[in-house]
Design a protein that fits this description.
The structure holds two protein chains of two kinds. Chain A contains eight helices and six strands; from the N terminus they run H-H-H-E-E-H-H-E-H-H-E-E-H-E. By secondary structure, chain A is of the alpha+beta class. Helices cover 42% and strands 12% of the residues of chain B. The chains are: A alpha+beta, B alpha/beta. Chains A and B meet through helix 1 and helix 7 of A and helix 2 and helix 17 of B.
Amino acid sequence: MVEVNRRGFLVSAATAAISALADDDKLTDGGFAAVTPPGAPARAIPVVPPGAAGLDDFSLRCVGCQLCVTRCPNQVLRPLRRHQPGMPLGVLQPVMGFERGYCRPECTACGDVCPAGAIRRLDPQQKKTVRIGHAVWNRDLCIAATEGVTCHACERHCLGNAITLVPMDAGDKTSPKVPRVDDAKCIGCGACEHLCPARPMPAMTVEGLAAHLTS
Amino acid sequence: MTFRTGSHGEKVSLLGYGAMRYPTVDGGHANTYHGGSNAPIDLDKVQKHIDFCIEHGVNYFDTSPAYCRGESEKVLGDALSKHPRDKWFVATKLSNFAPKTQTFEASRKMYEESRRLLRTDVIDFYLLHSIGGGGKNAMKVFNDRFVDNGMLAFLLKEREAGRIRNLGFSFHGEESVFRHAISMHGKVHWDFVQIQLNWVDWHHAKEVNPRNVNAETLYNLLAERNIPAVIMEPLLGGRLAKFNEAVSRRLTPLDPKATPASWSFRFAGSFPGVLTVLSGMTYLRHIEENVKTYSPLKPLDDAERAALERAARAYLSDDSIPCTSCNYCMPCPYGLDIPGIFSVWNQAAVSGYLPDDAADPDYAAGRRRFLVEYERFVPRLRQAQRCIGCGRCAPHCPQSIDIPAMIRKVDVFVEKLRRNGRA
């Protein structure tokens, strides 16, 4: 109960702060709004790179050498710091996070360097078809709810064209639009999570798939 | 320095100082980026620049309550106060764009605040700031801001009382509002009007954007009524200070030593109805160069004017976005560096490295150069991909650029470049 109230308060406070902006009572020109990097949400199931067959297989093969971590040009891969109960991954085995970037379609660096066969080598065409996770939308965090504006960030940058925007209130076509994710198309690249403007936590979170799928 | 005569006999220097692009302590200017910082204005440099201006005859200083995050007037007032009052004219504006500043009380407060910050009882030139904005509602916006709230009547009384020497307006946008304001001339008697004029906008403003008005139309409407014209954007925010190859081919043979900026200042200054040409000069070398161009002005001859017209057509052939880095759109609530993004794009457009065909032999080099410039100039969290498409920026643009669409264009372009390379 306390949690709900606190969250309700935070959301309404954020709405009040932003509706002042929406009135566009900007008095002066120039300068920059402060920007904060995206937050790192908790995941029920960790995300591991395309080329790993799934969590079990990956955790058995990966030797924790960190080659993929050092090569990842988008700073997505990082060593697991704390064992997550119930998950097969061990400390120092790599997992993905999207605060600094997302898994870019042209990049196959991790599979190219993996010496243990934990991340298999894929070409960019193959990589596009591998589903490593799926995006989950959190209504309470989305700026359509907190600020009352339609945001196109996730829809525009979705690599699998898995996101369509629909009115938040199905009965009101003029209500701010929100993303609807087609799980069959989402590959889990993290573009939506990385580019989501919601702070401190993104409204889009990628949840891993315990066994990767190829479509 | 060449001088012109104002409506009340003022001897005004043909070069005017625009207080919108002050130098900042990080070496950039107050209206822009440099790594996306909010760097403070370099007050010592501003003082030096203004001292230099006054020593060299520049006596018209233009500011606004909105410029430079609202700091421009105070900085200018402080710097000018070191010089005798008869050495300078100051121009400022009623920048009541925000609805909450459009009541009589709020607008009047803005006017009084300008006099306080500029440390003067008398404002030499006072402008209704940027009339013509608001798209389809432009006429209503004009009436809301100046007429219905009684501000224009009040300002006319202030002029009568001698607290405003010259009353005028600046214009961007809807032609009908310009014509309407001009039709008020018999009653109001505008002492001057500020317009955007340069060798591209003279005949081609409408080509750049159908919502804009050619400078020739504006200038002639003023000249017919003997209303002195103050010129802004003579260089389009610096974009005419660098020639693309096609322009350079047409102009350089006529005068190999002339700088791009000097062509533009000579163009604007050659019109006899022009009172002063404003320039936001960030660096001393800008001031030196422009002072030199106007000491004295050598008016363009017919051959030079014709060459500039040909150059204007060549200028339009590149893929530039018509942004002048005025920063009226800023700050973007989502943190984007809108003018910074456009400036990287335009730099590439003018220099010819907007690679679009991967089969082109120059593609790899162009791709690399563009991405390096982009990453260096615009921090990741302020890049085009961070645009959410809310559109709050667009109504503020005096050049009527569809900012969200152009940002999206850069975003798509960059994404294509990134995908077309090895990781």
